[in-house]
Hints:
Belongs to the sulfotransferase 1 family. Its EC number is 2.8.2.-. The chain is of the alpha/beta class. It has helices spanning about 1-15, 20-40, 75-80, 100-105, 105-110, 135-145, 155-175, 180-185, 195-200, 205-210, 225-230, 230-240, 285-305; strands at about 60, 65-70, 85-90, 115, 120-125, 150-155, 185, 190, 220-225, 255, 260-265, 270. The strands form 4 sheets. Strands 3-5-2-6-9 form a 5-stranded parallel β-sheet. Strands 10-11-12 form a 3-stranded antiparallel β-sheet, with no helix packed on it. Helix 1 runs antiparallel to helix 2 and helix 10 packs parallel to helix 13 (about 285-305). The termini are far apart.
Amino acid sequence: MAYLLVSAFLLAAQTHGAPKEYSQQGVGVLLDSLKLQEGLFTNESENYSSQVQPPGTNRRIPQSIIIGVRKGGTRALLEMLDIHPEIVVATTEVHFFDWDENYAKGFEWYKNLMPFSYENQITVEKTPGYFTSSLSPERIHEMNSSIKLLLILRDPTERVISDYTQVYYNRLENHKPVQVIEEIVIRNGELNTKYKAIQRSLYDVHMENWLKYFSLDQIHIVDGDTLIRDPLPELQKVEKFLNLRPRIMSSNFYFNQTKGFYCIRSDGRERCLHESKGRPHPMVNSTVLEQLQAYFKDHNQNFYRMVNRSFDWH
């Protein structure tokens, strides 16, 4: 229904001699206003393969990809970028470059999972698993060697705890046994460095692989800790990186006291991230925290040297 209305709008605009740019802009506004009503572009109802193609649009291979990191704030970044009228987002995680069974289906299959977009719009896909995948950098480079990559990172220790928290609640919801974090992070009195959550926080190790295929100016790093506290400055940097006009404003955000983080205000409606986001972290033994921070210290310093930038990480 939404796309029938859009098509009617476009036809009327063309009939009355409206310029193409105006028509596309109007359609963009109309699409945005219909997203909530029709359930388009949402996780719950997304099914790009069954969408009706609006006139003047095509599915396109992403011009930018949010490559990670898991529990770094990728969903928040994607939702906030979706405010921009020149960005369209694939709201489901595709796992094309990190899952062999999907990559074997080919680029045409991948493109068909993308939303329709106009020529002046950038398609953005996000799959947090790409950053820690050994195969993803080469595969993405093969698709488009000049692509712009977005990487959102947060304090490595906090990211480990957040990673644990997600798995903890998932196991509870599926009635599976759970362990306290100290039992997983510490084994035989020593830090369990083979724990996947710890491995994912070794940013320098993973970044080294990406820099084999992409120059540093193709990878924009978003400070996930800052994005949570004050979204606009980080998003303005992304707009500049993607060569977009500044269209995201402070009025697009409001702090939700109940949830404890910023929510989005756009096109006359308000929305917050899913309830699974922003869950309270467990209290972690201070000695364990210190062990994690000590382990990441050298890795963090190495990462700072690699990207010519420092972060306020413990």
